[in-house]
Amino acid sequence: MALSKQWTLERIEGILRNLSDQLAPNKIEPLDIIDYIHIAVTKTAERLGLSTLGDYTQATAVSVVTLAAASGIVLATSYSYTTKTVTKAAHGLSVGDTLIYWDDGGYYAIGYVATVPSSSTFTVSQNIGVTVTNFKYLKVTPHSTDTVDISGLGYGVDQIVKLSDSISGLCVPKPTDVLDDLTYPQKQGKIHYYRRGETLVLRKGSDVSAYGTLTLEYVRSPMKVTTSTDYLDIKDKYISLIIDVAKLLVYEAVNAQPPEQLSKSVEERIGAFAQENLKERVAINAGQLPG
């Protein structure tokens, strides 16, 4: 749900359209105006640190998909070194699986599964670099791969705040090389994870028998509104600033010099809001305000 309660896209579009018509009639397309508004919202939210105040923080339950570990040497149907695509029916692999792969001519590489377009194809992170006739691979980790697809979460996951499990508690974020390491010690009572693109790769410690309900808390990106009656995704207190930041983008687009007072006013208000928000963050961290 958008954060503004009063300001729709249409209201701000009209203001910017009047400005663009005064500066350079018919030079800026309507879709460009929408882009400038979204850029203004995104840039302002970032400069004011609004994500740290919880403005764009959401929590949602997520589901784990478990794919069984492969075993033994597998002969693929084909390999394209130009796209790093391997074809093998029912390969059973998932993003993050570590592989050793080679051909009969002595060329080999160590990498991981980068993408899985289908059940019969996957791409690898490292290229052998030559055309091969007998592409073979071996999954070198004995563990199954548990993944969470976060690509469908609304407006994108800009930053993960935390991942928690109803049984084992707070999950532990790890760098990629820790989970890919063959000596990774699964002796802890925690779930470990890392992010690879739009996928979370998870591994349970040996003391964790099963997943409970997983809840992901994340900071989303401000949503781009495209319908005239939609409200902007930023609080109303910042709208006048958003309008002026978007005005500066219009001036830049038509290669015109903005009024000095406009640029000065934008920077002054950003500084004032940033100070105000910093005090609020300190109060939240000190437990004086609800976070």
Describe this protein's structure.
There is one protein chain. With 291 residues, the chain is α+β, with helices and mostly antiparallel strands. Among the domains are: 9-56 and 222-254 and 262-285, no CATH class; 74-139, Elongation Factor Tu (Ef-tu), domain 3. Helices cover 27% and strands 27% of the residues. It has 5 helices and 16 strands. It has helices at 9-23, 30-47, 176-180, 239-253, 260-285, and strands spanning 57-62, 65-67, 74-75, 78-80, 85-87, 98-102, 108-118, 121-124, 136-139, 145-149, 157-165, 169-170, 172-173, 191-196, 199-204, 214-220. The strands form 3 sheets. It has a 7-stranded antiparallel sheet with strand order 3-9-6-7-8-5-4, with no helix packed on it. Strands 2-10-15-14-13 form a 5-stranded mixed sheet, with no helix packed on it. A 4-stranded antiparallel sheet has the order 1-16-11-12, with no helix packed on it. A hairpin with a 5-residue loop joins strand 6 (98-102) and strand 7 (108-118). The longest helix is centred in the last third of the chain and has 26 residues, at 260-285. The chain is extended, with a radius of gyration of 25 Å. The two termini are 19 Å apart. The mean pLDDT is 85.
Give me some keywords for this one.
291 residues; single chain; 5 helices; extended; 27% helix; Elongation Factor Tu (Ef-tu), domain 3; 5-stranded mixed beta sheet; alpha+beta
